[in-house]
Design goal:
By secondary structure, the chain is of the alpha+beta class. The chain is built from 13 helices and 59 strands. A hairpin with a 6-residue loop joins strand 19 and strand 20.
């Protein structure tokens, strides 16, 4: 059985067997079908040492000689079985395994087979260097299992077999139940309480004298099955209340597919919607009951067959009484009062409140403008007109369209769920995403030429990585990666322009509803092409769909071509319309907009007003005209709390309606806005964002009682008593400390000196330091082995005068990969032993970085300007990256962007794709005027905690880049008389940047604006008699303590720094307006000698 439906059936059988606890049968079917590799079961077998069952289970998916991954999988399993026999001193069994199981690999690697054979001659196989770390059977199996998982994931034969499809609980039961209901609906004389006792025959209601009911009544073969309780008998013999007589319909109306089943329905079925008719069974006789629930069933998944509503509703208006019988006015919960009116300047087309700062309103207009308002202070914080950010990247079709007609309107604006981003969809091709760094500080993030024609809607979702979904006039829906703008999926199938989209998720299943201008509703599953279902919207209207805030109720609202508006609630369990809301004017002049709030209310802009409904009552609750001046179909948008409602009004205005709580909220944030205005933030909002085109009439509200802000002063430390510092000295003779890093655990510091010796200081856990973390309050111990062995790099082929020391530490702190001009050495940090050495010069390694997902992959920067991608496991260079002209001085991986960034002594920064190891972007740092560029300048790179922004440290400057475009966001350059930068690094939380200088000065910068907040002068940490040749070459930040850092000095020592407890941090951050402008792509701080009026701490 190879067809898609046959495959689905096997999965349904697997699910049923699992629910019925037939565990052995489940795994046997998995193996025999080869459709699903159960990693959890495989893990149990491996950890239990059931080697025969392990290979038997694997045989259903691969054979030894299928490919190199399969060969490696079987080799690792058989090698472990062999070592366990040797460990038990069972040499007879070991020889048997060697000849029967391992000999097959001799033809592929004869030397390896010989080495394995020689283990028989050893009293303890751990005498072999490569097996010296073998501890015991349990830990060895666990380590091997990790390797096996990687091999299985990489093996193409296991592709699409590691993920079990998302299937609703008891899906096979539900399908059988649907079949029985369908059979019952076709009965010529349907009985009231059908008694079905077998699945072996089609169901048919007969008279009591017929032989079939008697046969069924006496058939107990299935009912007596030992594990069938909860599944059979199919029907409970209870009575059913008759459903209301439905409207006339065709005799064989198709069964509606439940909306909740769309995501698992493999075929596309067209379903006409008949409101209030349940599953379209036309017989007035009651339907049969649903199949009793199994262990995994829930009430949500049980189909209902009555056309009645779920709860009893009183006719007419809502009574407005609570459970205690006390009358209250339900409309008081609605935003009815006009709190303020905003003059937008052009007609609003889309609005959205910030999800966290609920008084910030984002607005898009008919002329392509976007604005950000603080409705509490009535201030327009930001205003931008439409502009293509990268004209060279857009399509020729868009260029031609803009030349022909430059007018563009905003179709949709929307905040991301966390409020860090917002998206703008335009009427011509484009989607632009902005990053929000605060109410007034927004910056370009990514621009996407998304659709041909108008982009009609957008939405954010987060299935595996944050994505944005768009739809357009080209009849498609597309999913894009937010970080890079890469297209992930395209969904095709609509026959008319797609009007709106509504993403949703159930547990781990992510899907999207879409509606089109021809009144069609479709559903799409992420990663699966083709719509999962095809429905007609009520009245074939152009609709929008939305869930209630808790995600439990689904609504749609729209207007047909005839001007008839429809708003309904869907019954997801049955795929029918559960409730139709009444109260629209007979003919709407445009497509009405609606919104939901508080899991209770619906609002629609219609007939020059805002109409409200209680979700549980189809009758109109109330109408509000917002003091008049509204268009025919006003645009509306609630804030998250539902206490503010933005409504578009005539004359390019926006009215903000509020509840009593909403008015209090606005007053609260109005106080915050006064503080902001005192600091001048609001008054500079437009300038900060580099856009003054629409600033006319926008004036900051500076109250008369405002006082000038306190003048900020730099914190400068000159006295040792004004900070905590600890000097770490070595008892071995060392040279300058060239590289420095904290261990990932934060309990030790590792240094590499120019003479190729590694030094490791570890903090003990004691009364003074209960955590065992690095601190200035306790002295660490220099770790030394009893044998006196040191971790020393290979220097055999090195040229000391040209050697560039480098190292990289594994994530678990167990291994160091290091080089000092010779071979690259791999050290065990516990024993200091050299595990292996590889890649002898030339060329020599100058920088090392582990791949973020695989410690066996290492990026190696070379002194010949290339970057080698090296696989340690197979001892092979997988790729060579060429693009620099001088030696590599920095490497950094981003797991979010799937990129590698390299920097070189040529002052160049290059972004590489790690999927194909291709160059994506590059830029060259510009040396400040008046500075002579050095022949060889170290340029270091490090990713921000968000893995998107990049710190670049050059001897003349610090720069923050947005990586995907290599767009310079912030820049700080040294002054004319300042010493060069020797090294720089982010703090662990990326809020600070620590930098060291060749004159011994240390500076702490605010990462957000690269402004100096604290300066530590050499006389505060170096003795007065120390030579001026002692200065820091390396700097490292503690991995958990944001305010702790360490430096490596040219005298071979290491010094650790922390601020005083009374301060708690390094200085005070400068205000945003003090010497920097957020609109500038780069800013330059004054030279070090001109740091005016520092706050001395002597």
């Amino acid at each position: 059985m190879t067809s898609s439906l046959s495959r689905d059936l096997i999965f349904l059988i697997l699910q049923f067997l699992d629910e019925e606890k037939f565990k052995e049968t489940v795994h046997k079917l998995e193996q025999e079908s080869g459709l699903f590799f159960n990693a959890k079961y495989f893990e149990e077998l491996v950890l239990g040492g059931n080697w025969d069952e392990v290979e038997k289970y694997l045989s259903g998916f691969t054979k030894v000689d299928d490919n190199r991954y399969s060969m490696k999988i079987f080799f690792e399993i058989r090698k472990q079985k062999y070592l366990e026999a040797l460990d038990k001193l069972d040499r007879t069994k070991a020889v048997d395994i060697l000849m029967k199981d391992l000999k097959v690999f001799a033809s592929f690697n004869e030397d390896l087979f010989k080495e394995i054979t020689q283990l028989l001659t050893l009293d303890n196989f751990r005498e072999n260097d490569q097996l010296s770390n073998y501890r015991d059977t349990k830990s060895a199996r666990a380590i091997m299992l990790i390797e096996l998982k990687k091999l299985i994931e990489s093996n193409p034969l296991f592709r699409d077999k590691l993920q079990y499809p998302n299937i609703k609980n008891s899906r096979l039961r539900m399908l059988i139940n649907q079949s029985l209901n369908w059979q019952h609906s076709l009965c010529g004389n349907p009985g009231q309480n059908p008694d079905i006792r077998t699945l072996f025959y089609d169901h048919s209601c007969r008279n009591a004298n017929h032989a079939y009911p008697q046969l069924a009544a006496n058939n107990h073969l299935i009912a007596s099955a030992p594990k069938s309780e909860g599944f059979l008998p199919i029907v409970a013999n209870g009575s059913f209340q008759p459903a209301p007589a439905p409207a006339p319909a065709p005799a064989l109306a198709p069964v509606q597919t439940p909306l909740t089943a769309w995501i698992s329905n493999p075929t596309t079925v067209t379903h006409p919607v008949v409101p209030g008719v349940g599953l379209n069974f036309i017989s007035p006789n009651p339907g049969i009951a649903a199949m009793p629930k199994g262990p995994g069933d829930s009430d949500v998944s049980r189909p209902r067959f009555s056309g009645a509503l779920d709860r009893v509703m009183l006719t007419g208006n809502n009574s407005g009484q609570n459970h205690h019988g006390l009358a209250f006015n339900i409309t008081e919960e609605l935003p009815r009062n006009v709190a303020c009116t905003l003059n937008q300047g052009s007609a609003p087309t889309s609005m959205d409140f910030h999800p966290l700062r609920q008084t910030l309103l984002l607005v898009g207009t008919a002329i392509g403008d976007i604005s950000l308002w603080d409705v509490s202070s009535r201030e327009k914080l930001v205003s931008k007109s439409f502009q293509v950010w990268d004209i060279g990247a857009i399509s020729m079709v868009l260029k031609a369209s803009l030349v022909k007609d430059a007018s563009v309107s905003v179709k949709r604006v929307l905040w991301s769920p966390d409020g860090s981003l917002f998206g703008v969809a335009y009427s011509k091709h484009m989607v632009q995403l902005y990053t929000c760094y605060g109410g007034h500080d927004i910056r370009h993030h990514i621009e996407i030429d998304a659709h041909v024609g108008s982009v009609n809607d957008l939405a954010f979702c987060n299935p595996n990585k944050q994505s944005v979904i768009t739809c357009g006039d080209d009849k498609t829906i597309k999913v894009w990666e937010v970080a890079t703008g890469a297209k992930l999926y395209t969904f095709e199938g609509h026959e008319a322009p797609v009007h709106s989209i509504c993403p949703h998720s159930r547990e781990t299943v992510h899907f999207v509803f879409s509606t089109s201008l021809d009144g069609k509703i479709k559903a799409w599953l992420h990663g699966v092409m083709g719509s999962r279902v095809d429905y007609d919207a009520p009245g074939r209207s152009c609709s929008t769909m939305a869930y209630s805030a808790d995600g439990k109720r689904l609504f749609s609202c729209g207007t047909s071509q005839d001007g008839e508006s429809h708003m309904v609630e869907w019954n997801e369990n049955e795929g029918t319309i559960k409730r139709t809301y009444q109260g629209f004017q007979k003919r709407s002049l445009g497509v009405v907009q609606f919104d939901t709030t508080k899991n209770r209310f619906l609002a629609v802009g219609d007939d020059y007003s805002i109409k409200f409904w209680d979700m549980d009552n189809p009758s109109l609750l109330t109408t509000i005209d917002a003091e008049g001046g509204l268009p025919t179909s006003p645009r509306i948008r609630f804030n998250k709390a539902g206490n503010l409602l933005a409504v578009s009004a005539n004359d390019n205005r926006i009215k903000i309606l509020a509840t009593v709580d909403g008015l209090c909220l606005m007053r609260t944030f109005e106080g915050h806005s006064l503080v902001a205005s005192r600091l001048g933030i609001a008054s500079e909002a437009l300038i900060k964002n580099g856009d003054t085109r629409n600033s006319e009439g926008v004036k900051p509200r500076v109250p008369e009682e405002a006082h000038p802000p306190k003048i900020w002063k730099l914190t400068e430390i000159n006295d040792p008593s004004k900070l905590h510092s600890l000097r770490l000295s070595a008892r071995v003779k060392t040279d300058k400390i060239a590289r420095l890093v904290y261990t990932n655990s934060g309990t030790a510091i590792l240094a590499l000196a120019l003479n190729a010796i590694h030094l490791l200081w570890k903090w003990p856990r004691n009364d003074l330091n209960s955590s065992g973390k690095a601190t200035t309050k306790a002295t660490p111990q220099l770790v030394q082995q009893a044998s006196g062995i040191l971790m020393t790099n290979d220097l055999m082929d090195a040229r000391p005068e040209e050697a560039v020391p480098c190292f990289a530490l594994s994530k678990n702190d167990s291994y160091i990969m290091s080089a000092s001009g010779g071979k690259i050495s791999l050290f065990n940090t516990m024993t200091f032993k050299t595990m292996t050495a590889f890649m002898p010069p030339p060329p020599a390694a100058t920088y090392l970085a582990f791949h973020p997902q695989d410690n066996n992959i290492v990026a190696v920067g070379m002194d010949d300007s290339t970057v080698h991608i090296y696989n340690v496991r197979v001892d092979e260079v997988k790729s060579k990256l060429k693009g620099h002209s001088k030696r590599i001085t920095g490497l950094a991986f981003s797991s979010v962007l799937n990129t590698l960034v390299s920097s070189g002594a040529d002052s160049q920064v290059i972004v590489w794709s790690i999927d194909r190891w291709e160059r994506k972007k590059n830029c060259v740092l510009q040396v400040p005027a008046g500075r002579t560029p050095a022949a060889m300048s170290d340029t270091q790179v490090q990713f921000h905690q968000d893995q998107v922004h990049l710190l670049v440290a050059h001897d003349t400057q610090l720069v923050i880049y947005e990586t995907t475009k290599l767009e310079c966001l912030k820049q700080w350059t040294i002054g004319e008389f300042s010493a060069p930068i020797s090294h720089a690094t982010f703090s662990c939380d990326s809020q600070l940047v620590y930098a060291s200088f060749l004159d011994g000065t240390l500076r702490v910068f605010s990462a957000s604006n690269l402004q100096v907040r604290c300066q530590i002068n050499p006389n505060s940490y170096l003795p007065s008699d120390v030579s001026s040749t002692v200065y820091p070459l390396a700097i490292a930040a503690h991995p958990q303590e944001p305010n702790q850092f360490a430096i490596g000095l040219t005298d071979g020592s290491v010094q650790v720094f922390e601020p005083l407890e009374s301060d708690g941090k390094w200085g005070v951050p400068p205000p945003a307006e003090n010497g920097t402008s957020g609109s500038m792509p780069s800013t330059t701080a004054p030279p070090a000698v001109a740091l005016d009026q520092p706050q001395n701490m002597e």
